[in-house]
Amino acid sequence: MTKIVEAILENLSTREVFLFRVSCANCGAQYTNKPIRFSKAGELPATQSKRIIYDALYEQELRAVRQGAIRSASQHMNYCPICKRVVCNRCFMICDDLDMCKSCAARLEEPGKPVLSEIVEFSL
Ligand SMILES: [Zn+2]
Ligand SMILES: [Zn+2]
Asked: 71: closest CA among 83, 81, 63?
Protein backbone atom coordinates (compact mmCIF):
# COMPACT_ATOMS: atom_id res chain seq x y z
CA MET A 1 0.00 0.00 0.00
CA THR A 2 2.82 2.42 0.74
CA LYS A 3 4.00 2.27 -2.89
CA ILE A 4 0.54 3.17 -4.12
CA VAL A 5 0.18 6.03 -1.65
CA GLU A 6 3.63 7.23 -2.60
CA ALA A 7 2.50 7.56 -6.20
CA ILE A 8 -0.43 9.85 -5.35
CA LEU A 9 1.26 11.83 -2.59
CA GLU A 10 1.59 15.51 -3.51
CA ASN A 11 4.46 17.53 -2.18
CA LEU A 12 3.26 21.02 -1.22
CA SER A 13 6.36 21.80 0.79
CA THR A 14 8.04 25.18 0.66
CA ARG A 15 11.51 26.18 1.76
CA GLU A 16 10.06 26.88 5.21
CA VAL A 17 7.43 24.21 5.78
CA PHE A 18 7.04 20.54 4.95
CA LEU A 19 3.56 19.66 3.76
CA PHE A 20 2.17 16.66 1.92
CA ARG A 21 -1.30 15.86 0.64
CA VAL A 22 -3.30 12.88 -0.56
CA SER A 23 -6.74 13.10 -2.14
CA CYS A 24 -9.51 10.55 -2.32
CA ALA A 25 -10.25 9.70 -5.95
CA ASN A 26 -13.89 9.08 -5.12
CA CYS A 27 -15.10 11.92 -2.87
CA GLY A 28 -12.22 14.33 -3.37
CA ALA A 29 -11.49 14.65 0.35
CA GLN A 30 -8.00 15.94 0.88
CA TYR A 31 -5.74 15.00 3.73
CA THR A 32 -2.57 16.79 4.64
CA ASN A 33 -0.06 16.30 7.39
CA LYS A 34 0.31 18.88 10.14
CA PRO A 35 2.71 21.38 8.59
CA ILE A 36 6.18 20.88 10.01
CA ARG A 37 8.68 23.70 9.92
CA PHE A 38 12.14 23.21 8.49
CA SER A 39 14.54 23.46 11.42
CA LYS A 40 16.47 26.22 9.61
CA ALA A 41 13.43 28.04 8.26
CA GLY A 42 14.10 31.75 7.93
CA GLU A 43 17.82 31.35 8.55
CA LEU A 44 20.07 32.36 5.72
CA PRO A 45 23.23 30.33 5.45
CA ALA A 46 26.18 32.61 6.16
CA THR A 47 28.58 30.86 3.83
CA GLN A 48 28.52 28.68 0.74
CA SER A 49 29.50 25.70 2.89
CA LYS A 50 26.60 26.34 5.24
CA ARG A 51 24.30 26.54 2.25
CA ILE A 52 25.35 23.05 1.17
CA ILE A 53 24.78 21.78 4.71
CA TYR A 54 21.36 23.45 5.00
CA ASP A 55 20.32 22.04 1.64
CA ALA A 56 21.26 18.52 2.71
CA LEU A 57 19.51 19.01 6.03
CA TYR A 58 16.39 20.17 4.17
CA GLU A 59 16.43 17.05 2.01
CA GLN A 60 16.84 14.86 5.06
CA GLU A 61 14.00 16.45 7.01
CA LEU A 62 11.76 16.45 3.93
CA ARG A 63 12.34 12.72 3.48
CA ALA A 64 11.50 12.01 7.12
CA VAL A 65 8.22 13.96 6.98
CA ARG A 66 7.39 12.33 3.67
CA GLN A 67 7.92 8.85 5.10
CA GLY A 68 5.66 9.67 8.05
CA ALA A 69 2.95 11.02 5.72
CA ILE A 70 3.13 7.88 3.57
CA ARG A 71 2.88 5.60 6.60
CA SER A 72 -0.06 7.49 7.96
CA ALA A 73 -1.84 7.79 4.62
CA SER A 74 -1.57 4.03 4.13
CA GLN A 75 -3.86 3.60 7.11
CA HIS A 76 -6.48 5.98 5.78
CA MET A 77 -6.43 5.25 2.08
CA ASN A 78 -7.30 2.10 0.17
CA TYR A 79 -6.64 0.75 -3.27
CA CYS A 80 -9.72 -0.37 -5.15
CA PRO A 81 -8.89 -3.56 -7.08
CA ILE A 82 -11.71 -2.93 -9.55
CA CYS A 83 -11.21 0.66 -10.72
CA LYS A 84 -7.58 0.89 -9.50
CA ARG A 85 -8.18 4.18 -7.73
CA VAL A 86 -7.05 5.17 -4.25
CA VAL A 87 -9.97 6.12 -2.03
CA CYS A 88 -10.44 7.11 1.62
CA ASN A 89 -11.84 4.86 4.34
CA ARG A 90 -15.29 6.41 3.95
CA CYS A 91 -15.37 5.46 0.27
CA PHE A 92 -14.02 1.95 0.72
CA MET A 93 -16.41 -0.92 1.31
CA ILE A 94 -15.86 -4.17 3.10
CA CYS A 95 -17.78 -6.64 0.92
CA ASP A 96 -18.31 -10.38 1.11
CA ASP A 97 -15.91 -11.54 -1.55
CA LEU A 98 -13.74 -8.58 -2.41
CA ASP A 99 -13.38 -5.21 -0.74
CA MET A 100 -13.80 -2.33 -3.18
CA CYS A 101 -14.71 1.36 -3.44
CA LYS A 102 -18.24 2.67 -3.03
CA SER A 103 -18.72 3.44 -6.72
CA CYS A 104 -17.67 -0.02 -7.83
CA ALA A 105 -19.77 -1.69 -5.13
CA ALA A 106 -22.81 0.26 -6.33
CA ARG A 107 -22.12 -0.50 -9.98
CA LEU A 108 -21.53 -4.21 -9.35
CA GLU A 109 -24.38 -4.35 -6.83
CA GLU A 110 -22.15 -5.72 -4.08
CA PRO A 111 -23.51 -5.13 -0.61
CA GLY A 112 -20.98 -4.00 1.95
CA LYS A 113 -20.13 -1.64 4.77
CA PRO A 114 -17.77 1.31 4.51
CA VAL A 115 -14.56 1.02 6.56
CA LEU A 116 -15.56 4.25 8.21
CA SER A 117 -19.11 5.54 8.23
CA GLU A 118 -18.75 8.66 10.33
CA ILE A 119 -16.92 11.76 9.27
CA VAL A 120 -13.69 12.02 11.15
CA GLU A 121 -11.01 14.59 10.70
CA PHE A 122 -7.48 13.40 10.64
CA SER A 123 -4.18 14.58 9.47
CA LEU A 124 -1.41 12.47 8.08
ZN1 LIG B 1 -13.49 9.40 -0.12
ZN1 LIG C 1 -13.51 1.19 -7.41
From this structure: 63
